[in-house]
Amino acid sequence: MDQVKKVTTPLTKEKIAHLKAGDSVLLTGVIYTGRDAAHKNLVNALKEGKELPVDLKDQIIYYVGPTPAKPGQVIGSCGPTTSGRMDAYAPALIGLGLRGMIGKGPRNEKVIAAMKEHGAVYFAAIGGAGALIARSVKKAEIVAYPELGPEAIYRLEVEDFPCIVAIDSEGNNLYESY
Amino acid sequence: MRNIPVQVIIQTVKNLCIEAACNLPEDVEELIKANQAREESRFGKYIFEQMIENIRLAREENQAMCQDTGIAVVYLEVGQDVHITGGSLVDAVNEGVRQGYTQGYLRKSVVIDPVFNRKNTGDNTPAVIHTEIVPGDKLKIMVVPKGAGSENMGALKMLKPSDGLDGVKDFILKTVREAGGNPCPPVIVGVGIGGTMEKATLLAKKALTRKAGTPHPDEKYAALEKELLEKINEMGIGPQGLGGKITALAVHIETYPTHIATLPVTVNLNCHASRHREAIL
């Protein structure tokens, strides 16, 4: 693909202001994983006034539940899961300063409104390309909820992780084209 | 009677689970490659390239092509002259799934109870097992790992007979349109028409495992499959829902006689990772 933008994490409002829907991006740096059960735990902790196990300010959450790593591997297959299931939880985390999300498929209006209000970007990775995406993960460690197995929160160090800006911080949305 | 020991069944199911997760059927891969050249959108072309590279890598490295290695759907065709020895057939299938998902480093994605206890069972059991008794002395086993991303976007509708062909078409197209980018398009659209609620649904799921892109033997249904595929690919959803020509790779319809008062239709979608492997013992 032409004109790939290289982006390093953590993100900032300034960095994401340059990211527009339709941009191809290679991400490098730290990202955190989280999907259904981890999101439920995070938002429940917020409601109970507890401290979150991860400081999400300026961070990216990748919606993924990897396969187990084989001996010698950093991580197993790790493509994105359907983001819509996290829509109920995402606005609360964006309100805390979460700056980016990676997943697949469209988001609802509440998520997009929160992205515009607080400044956040949504990246699409290629669903089903789990073995390929694993190659861009250089380090993986569980940082919260190990009891959730594949749904635990991992801290990943990625290098040139391929994705596409699907919805930018102004609300421009690639999924609206059909 | 022909004896088949459960140990052989366990070993076979284990191998099929790993093979299905890591090695996409050649017919599905060919259909993906055949559609690559027809995609015109910038993202669509890129996504096809990455999908094909991913299929190659997964096969070469014997690694799951997608991290959602599914709930294991297992079809058994048991010859009526087969005698299973040494234990229960269902237990053997589940033991094979347990060993396959553990030893193959596949993801365990099954929870104990759908509502009150969504705790992971830890070994991807139990499988969803469909058993059919057939003539002969063979046992056919097919393992279909089904991911939830595409499974969640399926739908069933009990149409009225007066809804007719137009009602059937509208429901199928509406289901695919509403699924949009969620089920990891390009999808294979499995359709079951007729029978009863559960029969239509089983037909729709079974339709997904037909050799990819081969038409229905009845020319009326073959024409309907073709028409629906064209209409779906005019929607513009495209690979991964990011816009493009190729939203579906194929539409597979299966049918069954039905009651005078009903017209059940089920749509079961499969992502491009239409994984299934079979063995005959």
Walk me through what this model shows.
The complex is a heterodimer of chains A (178) and B (281). Chain A is of the alpha/beta class and 178 residues long. Chain A has one domain: Fe-S hydro-lyase, tartrate dehydratase beta-type, catalytic domain (fumarase), CATH 3.20.130. Chain A has helices at residues 13-17, 36-47, 90-95, 109-118, 130-134, and strands spanning 4-8, 24-33, 60-62, 100-103, 121-124, 137-144, 153-167. The two termini of chain A are 22 Å apart. The mean pLDDT of chain A is 94. Chain B folds into two domains: 2-20 and 65-146, no CATH class; 149-274, no CATH class. Chain B has a four-stranded mixed beta sheet. In chain B, strands 6-9-7-8 form a four-stranded mixed beta sheet. The interface between A and B is large, with 41 and 44 residues.
Strand content of the residues of chain A, in percent?
25-35%
| Major beta-sheet overview of chain A | 5 strands, mixed, barrel
Identify the CATH class of chain A: Alpha Beta
Helical segment count of chain A: 5
- Under CATH, the topology of chain A can be stated as fumarase
Largest sheet of chain B: 4 strands, mixed
Assign an overall shape of chain B: globular
Could you give me the name of the CATH homologous superfamily of chain A? Fe-S hydro-lyase, tartrate dehydratase beta-type, catalytic domain
| SSE run of chain B | EHHHEEHEEHEHEHHEEE
